[in-house]
Amino acid sequence: MTTFTVIGTGSMGTAITGVLQRGGAAVTTIAHSDFGTKPVDGDMVVLALPYPALAEVVSAYGSQLAGRIVVDITNPLDFSTFDALVVPSDSSAAAELQQQLPEAKVLKAFNTNFAATLASGHVGDQPTTVLIAGDDAQAKQTLAQAVAAGGLRAVDAGSLKRARELEAVGFLQLTLAAGERIGWTGGFALEH
């Protein structure tokens, strides 16, 4: 069975850990305060951190991430204005991370979900759906199986190039919630 390390113990890290544990997965966590002192031991590593922390993760854990599946959940927003993504228009946070970790299998997932919808398992009357993008089909399938075992739906959103669109959806959803147009317990849902 695939083992997981979730780096980040905030609301998203806690919610993702809960989903994985509900599905029976073995999960270890690393808090931001433990960076560099606690090793990564999971086959799959979920980076449940804000976008600016990715550079610190690469610095502290880059060599340990080689050969592992690395899941980027970030939305690279300009948090000072909440009005733009801070990556080039032809790229994504996940693509940048893949360049920095060439020996890892980077996936984009969970960035279009709020912590509350991961924890509750639904968005309105629809089951929570985790969209997964990446270039490694087996890595995507492994994550999809863990998500499904945890009671959520998983949809393959395509190659890592689709991370840009997932980040745009995440950006839109965050700005709607911050502007109080939708609740933090809601968001976008997919009918199956």
UniProtKB/TrEMBL annotation:
Kindly give the InterPro entries that the UniProt entry links to this protein.
NAD(P)-bd_dom_sf, STEAP_metalloreductase
**Per its UniProt entry, which superkingdom is the organism in?**
Bacteria
Q: What SUPFAM superfamilies does this protein map onto?
A: NAD(P)-binding Rossmann-fold domains
**Residue intervals passing through the bilayer:** none
**Record's protein name:** NADPH-dependent F420 reductase
Please give the organism: Pseudoclavibacter caeni
